[in-house]
């Protein structure tokens, strides 16, 4: 079952890689945040390959499909109803 789930997550990452979005825009009550994405950014999913070339899921359960934003292109604000840990 996990192999199938990992394949679904990989297909979602592949779809996002084809799009090459310029930015992600998040809105919610108290939040309006735009995060720019670097040119040729890569979306990854949950799977990894070990030193022996075997696939595995290092973080279970997982729903991860992720990339990294361009640190020079962040604009907006975020509000949280819970305490946040940042800068350390």
Automatic annotation (TrEMBL):
One of its GO terms (molecular function) is metal ion binding. It comes from the Bacteria. Pfam families: Peptidase_M29. It comes from Streptococcus pneumoniae. Keywords: Aminopeptidase, Hydrolase, Metal-binding, Protease. GO terms for biological process: proteolysis. This is Aminopeptidase.
